[in-house]
Amino acid sequence: MLAASPYSVLKNMFNPQPKPVRKAKKTRHYIKPGVKTNDWETAKKLLKPAFEEVGLTYCEVGAYLQDVPEYAPRVAKHSHKFFLTWAHGDKRNNLEGAELITLVVLSCVDCHNYIERMQRVEMRVIVEAIIEARTVQPSTKNYDEANN
To answer: Are strands 104-108 and 84-88 parallel, antiparallel or unpaired?
Structure first.
């Protein structure tokens, strides 16, 4: 009689491995937008047509800072054409009342990041100066009607 090889012995052994138990997927609980976020979403929908109506479709920050000698070298390298965003005179959390829509300028991402790194007071002074230097002002009448 032939001796059993080690392979055949292992082959015939029953050594079950338990299958891993699948964990149930956790449901995500997203944070819902708050009052300030909803106000800003409403303001954006009104700002865009108001700015387009008066022809403000360029980077206002870059255009203004290029004429200021101390900032000109830093912003001259930016293209000021792509990815326009809204830059406020202060962090949105610190804005009160109608400042959300009145204290805002159009900015490219590079210039927006540049003024965001400034001190709050300096950032506010620059944004207010840009708004005062405008030859035309966008209308905020629709925002006042929407919030009342």
So the answer is: antiparallel
